[in-house]
Design brief:
By secondary structure, the protein is an alpha/beta fold. Helix content is 41%, strand content 20%. The chain contains 15 helices and 16 strands. The strands form 4 sheets. Strands 6-7-8-3-9-10 form a 6-stranded mixed sheet, with helices on both faces. Strands 2-1-4-5 form a 4-stranded antiparallel sheet, with helices on one face. The longest helix has 17 residues. The chain is globular, with a radius of gyration of 24 Å. The structure holds adenosine-5'-triphosphate. The site of adenosine-5'-triphosphate has 11 residues, from helix 1. GO terms for molecular function: ATP binding.
Length: 434
C-alpha cells in the first residue's frame, strides 16, 4: 500500500513569525496522502495556508512539525521528481521561451543537446511549437502560462503541483489550458503519476479532481474531503457535477470552526477573529439579489455567483459576513435569508442601519469590545492601538489593520461607534470633538 503513496504528510504544522515577532500557527496537524494515479484539489479560504501546504510538498518551505515525505523519503528540499507551476508564471523575462523551459533541466545537469531536444518536444506537446525563440513579453497570458507548464513538464515530473495556475487567465483561456493538461494526463502522454492543484474555483476543482480537500482557516486543517468518482472529460452541466459543486459550496461556506450540529448555538468567534474582507455595499447588494426574484430568499450559490458576476473568492467573505450577522445561512449549496435577512431587504435605510448595528454588537465580539471600552471610558473615546495590538497577536499587521478597518466600517454604518481618522481614535456616536 505504501508504494501507492507519492506524497505523505503526517501531522504537519507550520508556524510563521509575524513582522512584530509574534508566532502564528498557519497549518496544524495536517494528514494527507497523494496516491498514485490521482488528482487532488486543495480548496480553502484566502489565507488558509493552501500555498504554504503546497510549498511544503514541493520542498520549498520546511514543515516545523510532523513528517512530510515523498516516496517514503523525508522532504528536506526540492525533490527532483516534484515540479511546481505558479500562478504568476514566474518566467525570466530576459530569457527566450526555449531558455526558460530548459532551465529546469540545466539545474539537473542534463547536457545541452538533450535539453534542447526535450524542450522542443514539450513545447510541441503544450502547443507552443515555433515559439521557442520568443521572449515572454511577446506572448499572451495564456501562452506564458503554457511556458510555465512546459518548464515543469520538461523535467518529466512524477508529481505536479499547481498553485492557482489558471486564475490569472481569463475564464476561457484558463479552461482551455486546464483541459489540455487533463488530456495529457488522461491519455498518459506525461509520465506524471499524481497532481495536486490549489484553486479558488470550486467548479474547476470538481471538473479536474478525483478528490477535493478543504482546509479551514486559523489554523489551516483539513476539515472535509469529497471524492469525485466521475470519468473525465466531465460535462459541466451534468446533474452529478452540479450536485458536487453544490456540495462543495456548502462545505466551503460553513461557519468557522468549531462546527456545530444543526440546531445548536454556534460558539461565538473571538475578538481576534479575522473579519471577512467585504464591504457593506457588497453585503447589501448580495442580500438584495437573494431577496428578489427569481431567488425570493433562497439561491443556489453557483447561480447567484453567475447573477452577481463576481468570483467565488469575493463572494465567500460576503456570505460569511451575512451569516455572521445573522442575515443568512448556507445549507446544501444554497444561501437562504433568515427572517431577519428578509426584513432587512424590505427595510428603509434607517431601519437597515439599526438592524446592522444590533446584529454587529450581538455577533461580532471585536465590535462589542470596542463599544464596551468606549462606554466604560469617561471621555467616550479610545485609541485604536490596543485593538490593533490584540489582533496583531494573532495575525500579520496588515491583516490586523484590515480587520480593524472592517470593524470600523461596520460599526460606523451601524452607528455603534465613530472613528476619527486624524487621531486614529474611536468614539461614541454623537460626541463633539474636544
Ligand atoms: N513567509 C511567510 N512569513 C510570514 N507569514 C507568511 C509567510 N508565508 C505565508 N504567510 C502567511 O500565512 C498565511 C497563509 O498563507 P498562504 O499563502 O499559504 O494561504 P493561501 O490559502 O494560499 O492564501 P491565498 O488563497 O490568498 O493565496 C497568510 O496569512 C500569510 O500572510
Amino acid at each position: 500500500m505504501t508504494e501507492q503513496i507519492l506524497i505523505a504528510l503526517e501531522g504537519v504544522g507550520k508556524t510563521f513569525t509575524s513582522a512584530e515577532g509574534a508566532p502564528r500557527r498557519i497549518l496544524d496537524k495536517v494528514d494527507f496522502a497523494l496516491q498514485k494515479g490521482e488528482i487532488v484539489a486543495l480548496l480553502g479560504k484566502s489565507g488558509s495556508g493552501k500555498s504554504t501546504l503546497l510549498r511544503i510538498m514541493a520542498g520549498l518551505v520546511p514543515a516545523d512539525g510532523g513528517r512530510a515525505s515523498y516516496r517514503a523519503r523525508p522532504i528536506d528540499g526540492p525533490a527532483p521528481g516534484v515540479a511546481m507551476v505558479f500562478q504568476s508564471f514566474a518566467l525570466f523575462p530576459w530569457l527566450t521561451v526555449q531558455q526558460n523551459v530548459e532551465l529546469g533541466l540545466e539545474a539537473q545537469g542534463v547536457p545541452p543537446a538533450e535539453r534542447e531536444q526535450r524542450a522542443d518536444a514539450v513545447l510541441e506537446m503544450i502547443g507552443l511549437a515555433g515559439f521557442g525563440g520568443a521572449l515572454p513579453r511577446e506572448l499572451s497570458g495564456g501562452m506564458r502560462q503554457r511556458v510555465g507548464i512546459a518548464r515543469a513538464l520538461v523535467t518529466n515530473p512524477d508529481v505536479l503541483l499547481m498553485d492557482e495556475a489558471f486564475s490569472a487567465l481569463d475564464v476561457l483561456t484558463g479552461e482551455t489550458l486546464r483541459n489540455d493538461i487533463l488530456d495529457l494526463w488522461d491519455s498518459n502522454q506525461i509520465p506524471t503519476r499524481g497532481i495536486v492543484v490549489v484553486s479558488h474555483n470550486i467548479e474547476e476543482a470538481v471538473m479536474m479532481a478525483d478528490r477535493i480537500i478543504i482546509l479551514s482557516s486559523d489554523p489551516g486543517r483539513i476539515v472535509s474531503e469529497v471524492a469525485i468518482n466521475l470519468p473525465r472529460p466531465r460535462d459541466v452541466d451534468s446533474p452529478r457535477v452540479r450536485a458536487l459543486v453544490d456540495q462543495v459550496y456548502g462545505l466551503m461556506t460553513m461557519r468557522p470552526a468549531p462546527l456545530v450540529a444543526a440546531g445548536a448555538v454556534p460558539a461565538p468567534v473571538q475578538p481576534d477573529y479575522r473579519l471577512p474582507d467585504t464591504d457593506i455595499d457588497r453585503i447589501e447588494a448580495v442580500l438584495d439579489l437573494v431577496a428578489q426574484p427569481p431567488f425570493d430568499g433562497r439561491a443556489d450559490l453557483p447561480k447567484l455567483a453567475e447573477e452577481a458576476e463576481l468570483p467565488d473568492e469575493e463572494l465567500f467573505p460576503t456570505y460569511e459576513a451575512m451569516g455572521m450577522l445573522g442575515l443568512s445561512q448556507v445549507e446544501s449549496g444554497d444561501i437562504m435569508l433568515t427572517p431577519l435577512g428578509m426584513r432587512y431587504a424590505g427595510a428603509d435605510q434607517q431601519e437597515r442601519q439599526e438592524i446592522f448595528g444590533r446584529q454587529l454588537l450581538a455577533n461580532v465580539p471585536l465590535a462589542a469590545l470596542v463599544r464596551e471600552r468606549l462606554t466604560a471610558d469617561e471621555s467616550g473615546t479610545v485609541s485604536e492601538q490596543p485593538f490593533l495590538e490584540l489582533l496583531e497577536e494573532h495575525m500579520e499587521s496588515d491583516e490586523a489593520k484590515r480587520t480593524l478597518e472592517i470593524a470600523v466600517e461596520w460599526g460606523r454604518y451601524g452607528e455603534v461607534y465613530e472613528y476619527d481618522y486624524h487621531l486614529g481614535r474611536l468614539k461614541l456616536p454623537g460626541l463633539e470633538p474636544k
